[in-house]
Amino acid sequence: MFKVFRKEIEWGGRKLTFETGKIARQADGAVLVTYGETTVLCTVVGAKSPKPGVDFFPLTVNYQEKSFAAGKIPGGFFKREGRPTEKETLVSRLIDRPIRPLFADGFRNETQVICTVLSHDLENDPDIVAMVGTSAALTISGIPFLGPIGAARVGYVDGQYVLNPTMDAVDGSALDLVVAGTQEGVLMVESEAKELSEEIMLGAVMFGHSGFQPVIDAIIDLAEECAKEPWDLPEPAYDRAALKAKLRATVGADVEAAYTETVKQVRYEKIGAAKAKALEALAEAHETQAIVTEFKELEADILRGAVLKTGRRIDGRDTKTVRPIVSEVGVLPRAHGSALFTRGETQALVVTTLGTSQDEQIIDALQGEYREHFMLHYNFPPYSVGEAGRMGSPGRREIGHGKLAWRAIHPLLPKKEDFPYTLRVVSEVTESNGSSSMATVCGTSLSLMDAGAPLARPVAGIAMGLIKEDDGFAVLSDILGDEDHLGDMDFKVAGTDAGITALQMDIKITSITEEIMKIALGQAKDGRLHILGEMSKALTGAREAVNENAPRITVINIPKEKIRDVIGSGGKVIREIVEQTGAKIDIEDDGTVKVAAVDTKAAQAAIDWIKGIVAEPEMNVVYTGKVVKVVDFGAFVNFLGSRDGLVHISELAQQRVGKVSDVVSQGDSVKVKVIGFDDRGKVKLSMKQVDQATGEDLTKKDGPAA
């Protein structure tokens, strides 16, 4: 019934298997990939014809993790997988980025890739498995895909590169880098690093590129046995060269003039006018879609040619100069930390909020539930590019850019035990013309330091671009939006003056060489150091204390056996402390107690209360307490937190007492001395001996009033 094709190789010390022909046979391409015991089903389906009027390639990639893959039942009321998690969104982008440039020019058929995690061994991350599985599915599908690609994860442990480290090994690595590409070169890089040098990062990229070559060979072998017939690409319905010549003659001078405008909005207005002129002049002889497509090509030719010929860019800069920078901190009076970072026509307002461990994000992942105490949320409202648009939940772009900035900052954060705050950073992009994600990195660094978060060093980021033609190439520092859209590379590098913390690269051509990457990294280092210098004009390091509007967190330790006493039955005691003092209290299993409050008096009151609960009564010490109950034989006094003791009627006063209520009443504040403990550990107290004492031989302590 099944005609199964299978390829198996040893890769990074584990078995990698590609299998097709048994599952999802109605898809154009379907490959079941297993690495270790992590299994991902990768499918691809393409529409047989394009939709009319589509001027772009409608590719959709969906990566999804099923809870059953790790033997789990989903949380929540419905007990089924819901909207994509952040991890699923990020991996979908990770797969999309290296495959998108490799579809044939002019291919406009809607194409969907779906990768489903069916089994997870909690050692091998499914993201790499999904990437190579997608490559295999596309290669055998017949869809015009100019692959295959390979992908690998690279770690750096004890000065050595590690191919595809396990998930546990990544935690101890100085580098977590994912690289993808073809046999010829690299297409995509995504990484987080602990301040590594440009040489180590470049070496990691090339190590990964070399490491995934056996995977590409295995996919080619599989395709030779079972690939479907390649699809025919329709010939263009018009003479592209002739239409481009007409466009250049009609509006070429107008487009060239537009690209001499340094102000983005003015430039866009002139380009829009040139496009309208072209549509009007050529509408009778050519279809609108053809004119629009070739007009974009004309824009690219003019922009790219000018840079390669003159070394001058749209805004008049040379290839290495960074746009003017203005850094400001403390721009919002009530925020715990805030910064406004402006670089040219790109601007980010970044705000930091300090919280307690109760504010940590709980993440339910396949490998188990964990808590995240650093969150970075990136927002890109439509007004930032002068447009009116839809407002809603963050899209893939927002999530991806936020995670890139998170990776850049994460290695420099203080340890949680040294700075016990939950950190939430929000970046509102208020203007955008090139690399708002790197502006977010710079703004986040300043905002955190403004809030008093002791970063090890300030962090900055820069976006590099590339224009590559047959007769040469140019690497561009601090690219504009147009240079991103019409160029060949978006290469983002973030780090400190000591090294790189995050690197992300996307290539729009088939690949780039090691030489180009080396030049880009060196140029990016110079730009990053310049930006750090400009940022230091606003703030050189973290403020000595957290903002006055932020909670102060005090950490104390109590015996583990006393945790129950502080919490109380059903949480009664701790709720009472919180309600009466206004402080937030977190108690960990090891007895660590964190008390947080904006008001220092409230925090101290809560601390004293807790210390009173866990303190042990000491013999011959005088405490201040409150009478909580009066009985015939004496009075019960709450004198040390929730600790009660009995003052026997014989210990109430110097003279003989006939009736307890003649001396004390419930609610009275009294001084009592600890005179002993009975067989059950109950405390014996005396008021009489306090009266008798001269005070010279007694230590007086006040217990908090209940």
TrEMBL record:
Domain spans labelled S1 motif: 620-688
Pfam families (UniProt xref): KH_1 (PF00013), PNPase (PF03726), RNase_PH (PF01138), RNase_PH_C (PF03725), S1 (PF00575)
Record carries keyword rRNA-binding: no
Documented EC number(s): 2.7.7.8
Gene3D superfamilies named among the record's database cross-references: GHMP Kinase, N-terminal domain, K Homology domain, type 1, Nucleic acid-binding proteins
Binding, Mg(2+): D484, D490
Top EC class, one word: transferase
Annotated InterPro entries: ExoRNase_PH_dom1 (IPR001247), ExoRNase_PH_dom2 (IPR015847), ExoRNase_PH_dom2_sf (IPR036345), KH_dom (IPR004087), KH_dom_type_1 (IPR004088), KH_dom_type_1_sf (IPR036612), NA-bd_OB-fold (IPR012340), PNPase (IPR012162)
Role of this protein: Involved in mRNA degradation. Catalyzes the phosphorolysis of single-stranded polyribonucleotides processively in the 3'- to 5'-direction.
HAMAP family: PNPase
Name under which the protein is recorded: Polyribonucleotide nucleotidyltransferase
Source species: Azospirillum himalayense
